[in-house]
User: Fold this.
Amino acid sequence: MDNELIKGRITAVRGTVCDITFDDLNNGELPEIYHLLEVNDPDYTGSNSSNGQTTLPPLKMEVLSHLGDNTVRALALGNTFMLGRAMEVTYKKHQLRFPVNVTGRMFNTMGDTIDGFGEEYQILDDKYAVKKVTHYGSSPSTSSNTSEQHIIRHEIIQDPPEFKDISQSTELLHTYIKVVDVICPIAKGSKVGFFGGAGTGKTVFIKEMINTLTEKEQCKTIFAGVGERTREGAELWEEFTALHNQKIEDAVKKDSSASPEENGIMHNLSFIFGQMNEPPGIRFRTAHSAVRVAEYFRDQENSGGKNNVMLFIDNIFRFVQAGSEVSTLLGRIPSSVGYQPTLEMEIGDLQERICSTKNGSITSIQAVYVPADDMTDPAPTAIFAHLESKIVLNRDIAAKALYPAVDILDSGSNLISKINESFADSVIQHYASENDGMYSNEVMKLLLLRQEIIVKKVKELLSKDKELEKIINLLGIDQLTPEQKITHSRAIALKYFFTQPFEVSKKFSGQEGQRVPIWGSLFGSLALCVHDAIGNFDDKQLLFLKDIGGLYESYSNEKYVQKKEALENKEFKAFIESLKEPMTNVQKVTEWIGMIRG
Assistant:
């Protein structure tokens, strides 16, 4: 039967939830769950209006439940302000379809472009003839800064991969951010909770990760803004298009034949927004649309190996909130603390799709809002059950201008406990080009295998220093014992070392961005935990460890020198020079690890 022949009428409107009755179902089959209905009534769209009413596009509704033999309850994916009873509804016989392969554009949940760039298009049935769309991806120095992509649309609600198709291998996602790679390393295909309030540097942190991973890993990155401010989406688009153009211009200056596809980043990015002012149905499906795009890129054939996809969701709690609103509108009895009774199922349906398969991996970093800082709230608790790592940004650390402002004591990852020889060998092999011959393979492997011990010592020193700070604030640093002063110096050195200038913040800080391989981050952490010189450093010498890259690398080559004053300091210069030999001496590093083991 043709789609257009299956029609119904609206019998009730409750907010964004509608009841639709189908009187002439010849085969007795109601519209399927999750399939779309469409309202194209002139009284809704305003096409027959003579009073200046703005013309609206046809309203899409998603079937969520069956009521009796000929009535369904559906969720409106748009404004219901002009909706009324008896309006005609058409059954479309398919789910919401989203353009899964288009990069370099910003979309709403329905798959319509909202970035104001190039030719706009909407995913409407009467426009399915549109087969390709311009995207942001070519050099601004040419006559056109767009290229074209063919559009592929997929239904957004899918089942998770079968158990036999899920990959159990553990691979490191190298972020080149010291505090992340050491304290809370991220595994490909894992889910990471990202906690940070306003003013803690969360946006800059996410931007740096997107910038680094799209460039270093050449992975596709999808950013989903779920229930967040419209301003944030506009700023994100503006900043990334500016960064994209700057990278191409810098590349063209070095080589006039440089390819935009190889030097820009927008061809690897896709933005999807269901904004704060949208109806709950839109906000509820934004994350599903983003996950479907990530699944598409993960499952593509790749002769060069597995596909690695990054999925950023900001904020996953807004997804839960939207689900709660929808549940209430559907008339379901609330569960604990007023949340929907289907809370665990809804989160599970989304999160279980984010995983590694034989074709590739989806690594998700999700901002999580914790209501009233109550970690026992049902929503964060349900989300935490699916996370493998957490990165916590602290406002007090940010107030001291220590960026990234990661709270090391509250952050962590379960990947650390899974590190073995095969993992270490794969990391060294995959990132061998990052070594530059400074570290021997034996030292690199030992550092990776002993990462859990190094992290434990770092957290132990910072935890002790937290108690010492109370004494210092009350009585002064002179009241500390010599051993306590050394502990305090080591803790300050570690806090400074884990700061790092980002490439995306260069125009604000004036500092070149630094990217540090994981073994460089581990070596620096270990050295600061055991080296005798640290206990003798004064405040000025400790500051030399702030906003640098690798501990030895930052001062060993002139092009990396950021603080010439540091090399003029004899004690600090001697400390830096003493690090060169252990970088290739596995016996010395073994001795250091034995010292922190106690």
User: Anything to note?
Assistant: The two ends are 76 Å apart (CA to CA).
